[in-house]
Fold each of these.
Amino acid sequence: MLMIDWPLTIVVGIGLAVLVGVIGGYVSARMAVIGSERRLNRSLTQQPADV
């Protein structure tokens, strides 16, 4: 059987979970910003959007 270092495994698992959460939150925030920019662009077609 493969010996598993449980404290290290738990720390790595928590680290991966935090990393996935941060990346997921960043991506969802970017999608929300892009969606709101598109809504603004549709309502204000004569003005270019400031990025």
Note: The longest helix spans residues 6-43.
Amino acid sequence: MPDPQLNDDDYEMLASFRYTLRKFLAFSETAARRDGLTPRQHQALLGIRSMQTRGTASISDLASFLILQHNSTVELVDRLVASGLVLRSTDPDDGRRVLLEVTNLGEKLLANLSYTHLDELELIGPELRRLLARIQRYRRGKSDKAQVKIPSNTKSY
């Protein structure tokens, strides 16, 4: 039985939003492959590089960022190290911890991909903003309707 709280516009709004996200992800995967990376390698480079701006990047941090198991992340990092895109070192403060750093070659590749992605986001930005604003209006409207209004002549307990 259909949910009476949802209507055709709700489903269309969610479908449009998911479609726009999938289009961007498809673009991203194609761009990564064009530059000789798997989409996951691109995500890993981006994650490591962003973590470097806040301090250090570890295998555990990267596994969390990629939502991967530790051993899968180690295999991914092995391939990035073999490709000369990432350096791996032992944390001097904790010998159990492995730190990661994007190499100059990795930086160049990532910068090229990042410019490409930023250009694409600029193109689809208006559509994403329109859809997000529509979702926000929807959520505000639903929460307004969900609030119970107590008549002024009723005692509150």
Note: DSSP finds five helices and three strands in the chain.
Amino acid sequence: MPTRQMCSAWRSTNWPVKLILVHNHPSGTHEVTDADITFTDHMLKVGKLIKVEVLDHLVITETNYTSFADQGVMDELKKSGLFEIMGPEKQELEQFKIETEKKRAIKEERLKVAKSLKESGMSDEDIKKHTGLSLKVIGGI
């Protein structure tokens, strides 16, 4: 199976909201395979669930590329019901999403508190004790 690489915009404490999939084939061709389409469909559905829009999937070579969006493949896959997440799996993933969002919100609040404490002159060690954030995170504030 071809090596897959997912590229997304740099993020700090925020989730990415858009994603472009990029990979190459060991054969050196940029032709789309059934496996590419299936993988892309899976990623579209997962992206929909976690609210990360998959914009395109590029198959690249040193001199050329194929864009799923340019060929209309992305639009077709967005319309398909194939690989829709249903039943208990969807509930589990929704719960995971909620828990992840709660953790993100807690960390964001801790960062706000740490920033305020740092501005008031508190040492990084004391900020770590009060917020639970690492010294590396606190040093980057």
Note: The chain is about 50% helix and 15% strand.
